[in-house]
Amino acid sequence: AAGVIQSPRHLIKEKRETATLKCYPIPRHDTVYWYQQGPGQDPQFLISFYEKMQSDKGSIPDRFSAQQFSDYHSELNMSSLELGDSALYFCASSFREGRAADTQYFGPGTRLTVL
Amino acid sequence: QQPVQSPQAVILREGEDAVINCSSSKALYSVHWYRQKHGEAPVFLMILLKGGEQKGHEKISASFNEKKQQSSLYLTASQLSYSGTYFCGTDRETTDSWGKFQFGAGTQVVVTP
Q: Distance, in angstroms, between A13 CA and closest chain B CA?
């Protein structure tokens, strides 16, 4: 079965640089979530999109922005990178059956290292 | 507000049982359970909805006490493959958006031979 695709899988950047992470949801899924997970921590919700509109916002820094495109893929843009941005970034997708069963399926993650 | 998970960690021998709890101070619409192995993505285990509906695809059971806003995940006859960090995720009942999905801090489970 098709899964969530994230690219790149690994990314190394220097401080103050920018990075773009991409997420391709499972076909027919209409919702995308972004999470940041630091070492030994739980995934922190950043932002979500439903039908290409921002649905919910979590602890996403102002330096980060995201959008969902017409083909439902999503991109997380990160600017002025800081050392503390080094983490695993997960994308998850789901199909919202009305208000119910919003099961999220996670992609393999992008490991971002900021030097 | 982040849901509270307990215990923080548990060590089991193969075949033993364990219970992981997840509680919230806010009214919940659903509770999700995930297992994550080191360096890998969280894998969906179970979702419990307000009203009693459950959905899952592994031989792991769970309950959701709506009055207490608490969910419990039951690992029975544990196998080595059950090792990992278990996260509960909660989706609160709100009127302003789809919900405020948050993960708990996780429970590390180690199953030994």
A: 20
